[in-house]
Amino acid sequence: MDTARRSSPDRTNERLALYQQQLAAPLPSSATHTPARQPPTMAARDPITCHVLNTLTGTPAANLPVTLTLLSAPASPSSPVTFHATTNGDGRVAKWTPTSAATTLSVPEILAALPTGDSKTNWAVRFEVGPWYEAQGIESFWPEVEVKFTVKGRGREGVEGWRHYHVPVLLGPWNYSTYRGS
């Protein structure tokens, strides 16, 4: 049997022993006090968010006006409840502002007030695409893009099987696509 083959298991065992030593060694005191990165809390984002990417330029769609409307809910008022926002520099909306003074509840409060954990509400998020592209000197086929979807639950992160509702949109002047994000 040749020498290289006999020493290969020895080298493997040596490396394994070295890895075990490194894993068993105590961490330096500075490393043990490093705070862990926490996921965003409900205070940091609403239970419904969106993200828009401009496929024409391959960049986030910053400063795009967006409207979120509650279309139906158990015992909903006769006029729709609407919220507005403008996408940030990363093309995201994390918090919604009520459109009128008549809307006294926030998105999390509306969902929290639902009667059961499996209650459903229908929502629409509308992106004001036409004027946004026009301001950039680009003609758009879409005056607006509206995505309608159903939210199930009361919006409490990690409670009753709740999952955050994120609506990403890939947007171009002649096309768009969307999907359920996370």
UniProtKB/TrEMBL annotation:
Source domain of life: Eukaryota
Keyword Hydrolase appears in the UniProt entry: yes
This enzyme's EC code(s): 3.5.2.17
EC top class named in words: hydrolase
Keywords: Hydrolase, Purine metabolism
GO BP field: purine nucleobase metabolic process
SUPFAM superfamilies, A to Z: Transthyretin (synonym: prealbumin)
Signal peptide positions (record): none
Domain Transthyretin/hydroxyisourate hydrolase span(s) in chain numbering: 48-181
Reaction(s) this enzyme catalyzes, per UniProt: 5-hydroxyisourate + H2O = 5-hydroxy-2-oxo-4-ureido-2,5-dihydro-1H-imidazole-5-carboxylate + H(+)
Molecular functions per Gene Ontology: hydroxyisourate hydrolase activity
Any Pfam family matching the protein: Transthyretin
Biological role stated in the UniProt entry: Catalyzes the hydrolysis of 5-hydroxyisourate (HIU) to 2-oxo-4-hydroxy-4-carboxy-5-ureidoimidazoline (OHCU).
Summary of subunit composition and partner proteins: Homotetramer.
Family: Belongs to the transthyretin family. 5-hydroxyisourate hydrolase subfamily.
Annotated NCBIfam families: hdxy_isourate
PANTHER family assigned: 5-HYDROXYISOURATE HYDROLASE, URICASE AND TRANSTHYRETIN-RELATED
Protein name, per record: hydroxyisourate hydrolase
Record organism: Penicillium chermesinum
Lineage, highest ranks first: Eukaryota, Fungi, Dikarya, Ascomycota, Pezizomycotina
